[in-house]
Amino acid sequence: MLIHPEEILETIKMVSNENFDIRTVTMGINLRGCSHPDLDTFNENVYNRIMYYAKDLVKTTNEIQNLYGIPIINKRISVTPISIVAESCVATDLSSVAQTLDRAAEDAGVDFIGGFSALVQKGMTPGDLNLINSIPRALASTRKVCSSVNVATTRAGINMDAVSLMGKIIKETAEMTRDSSGIGCAKLVVFANAPDDNPFMAGAFHGIGEPDCVINVGVSGPGVVNSAVRALKDPSLGDISECIKKTSFKITRMGEMVGREVARRLHVQFGVLDLSLAPTPAIGDSVAAILEAMGLESCGTHGTTAALALLNDAVKKGGAMASSSVGGLSGAFIPVSEDQGMIRAVQRGSLSLDKLEAMTSVCSVGLDMIAVPGDTPASTISAIIADEMAIGMINKKTTAVRLIPAPGTKVGDMVEFGGLLGTAPVMPVHKFSSETFISRGGRIPAPIQSLTN
Amino acid sequence: MPDLHKRFNEGSSMSSSRFIITVIGIDKVGIVAGITQIMAQYSVNIVDITQTIMDELFTMIMLAEIKEENFDLAAFQQAMSMKGQELGVEVKVQHEDAFRFMHRI
User: Fold this and answer.
1) A47 and chain B in contact, CB less than 8 A
2) pLDDT for res B15
3) Rounded to whole angstroms, how far apart are CA atoms A446 and A105?
4) Mean pLDDT of B60-64
5) Across the interface, which of B4, B13, B103 has its CB nearest the CB of A7?
6) Who contacts A194 (Cβ-Cβ below 8 Å, separation ≥6)?
7) Which among A9, A85, A217, B54 is placed 20 to 30 Å from A43, CA to CA?
């Protein structure tokens, strides 16, 4: 037999015991041909365009899942940032576009649709402003739509007017989805250096420079890495890095195979494979557990940033060796509400918002799925965003903020979102005001690229 | 567009119609007979077969080949897993590429 029985059983064990899965197959669809001054015509164009490409996405993905016996958890769609294609619309309220996206997502049978987005790192057009102002209504009136706003890049700097505005938008979104603990905010991300081809939600959109239609695949497997690291007997950190690298190699290979086959059958281009350790609420499927397997008593204690840096880098190295199409975010995610180990660390008092911020400087993405008290001022949320954007801008990496100021909650409460979004412990923020700093507005200039110390 | 996709997705088509069938569970009389009976019904040919006891569990791995053009994989998978339930074992039918890709460069 070509393949050794032990290898066959290893693969089967990854799926049945260690929660290995293809996290998402995301179809990116270009909507630039849909523009029209009349909002109703525009909405119709958008709907038809999405259904034209996505009608067989779920069916094909399910076939591939059965063929290989590897679960594909989510099927998603990302579209061109709506602020760009809706720029020529006469109307200023774009929430009906979100409802159209929601309807298309429902009819195509996908879990989420991303791209109710704007890219405003240097300034805002009237279309961008219309879109951002529509976000709270859009997220309150839809179930599957995800929204993102890019407010900073390494080349443009940070648009502090947009940062200030987003603090208010996040508060307003939480308030408008008050009945479900502010869940609208779980579908809203603020980015620095947002990637064009990210298949993961809530930040996915179909970027400029992408083809007409593309399949991007997100693979995950914190549980697999966790088990592999724990199986090592008294390893050095070098051994751990080597083990993570090999494991992520295997995971990536599987993702690439699935992605290419889905793309081939749908007659569209294969884009990227995003290898991101994305935790789920399942036991053991946790990034915090991997860090603790390396020898930390509890995630968030001193040494956590170093351990996470090792993990993130080893994941990338394994992935880059396994596939030439690695892209998107690729690294380790640290969403608090979706990771049992992170939740426990917060409850034990070992993990704070400040430590999470430090961790985001060495891993992919940023302050993710963190609940803060409902009475947190908008300017404080903006200031948290500004800090995170600065880390992304200076370190030339993607960072993001997905905060939920859950209405009516205080520190220590638990906020339940359900499903993959999990349960968030409400974490404390600093009491001192950032109001004056945020209200100044303007732009933080792009950083110097030499004198790197 | 069809030409484009051909170029970008070159070489990605499945290499064969061979499947790995794994049967894992508590050993008892009649497992092999029951499983191979279903395979015969669907004209699935066994290319290679190996069987051991691992962690006190009966483990059978087969490399099987499908010759028919219009083979109904979903129906076969369902019949196999129903037979598995009847015998108290877990049966998986997966295309061999799932293992080839993960373990071979």
Assistant:
1) no
2) 52
3) 37
4) 92
5) B103
6) A119, A148, A150, A203, A205, A398, A400
7) A217
The interface predicted TM-score (ipTM) is: 0.80
Residue B11 domain-assigned (yes or no): no
Q: Which domain holds residue B37?
A: 16-103
Q: Is A162 on the interface with B (CB under 8 A)?
A: no
CB A197 within 8 A of CB A28: yes
Reported as a pLDDT band with limits 50, 70 and 90, residue A2 is low
> Are residues A182 and A53 located together in one domain of the fold?
yes
pLDDT confidence of residue A402? 96
A355 touches chain B (CB under 8 A): no
Q: Is residue B39 part of a domain?
A: yes
CATH of the domain at B55: 3.30.70.260
> Minimal Cα–Cα distance from B10 to chain A, Å?
9
CB A159 within 8 A of CB A389: no
Residue type, A33: G
Same domain, A175 and A223: no
**For testing contact with chain B, the best of A4, A7, A11, A247 (most B CBs within 10 A):** A11
Total domains, chain A: 2
Does the pLDDT at position A234 exceed 70?
A: yes
Decide: helix, strand or coil at residue A250.
helix
Per the CB < 8 Å rule, is B12 touching A268? no
Higher pLDDT, A58 or B17: A58
Facing A263 at nearest CB: one of B9, B54, B94: B9
Range of the domain at A338: 218-441
Residue A213 inside a domain? The answer is: no
Query: What's the pLDDT score for residue B13?
Result: 44
Radius of gyration of chain B (CA): 16
Q: What percent of chain A has pLDDT over 90?
A: 83
Report yes or no: A320 at the B interface, CB cutoff 8 Å.
no
Q: What six digits make up the tokens of B19?
A: 């499947």
Of B4, B20, B101, the CB nearest to A8: B20
Chain B: closest CA distance from residue A253 (Å): 5
Q: What is the pLDDT of residues A92-120, one digit of tens each?
A: 999 999 999 999 999 999 999 999 999 99
- A404 φ/ψ sector (left φ>0, alpha ψ -120 to 50, else beta): beta
Domain membership of residue B3 (yes or no) is: no
Predicted TM-score (pTM) of the model is: 0.90
Are A173 and A229 members of one domain?
no
- CA-nearest residue to B64 within chain A is A1
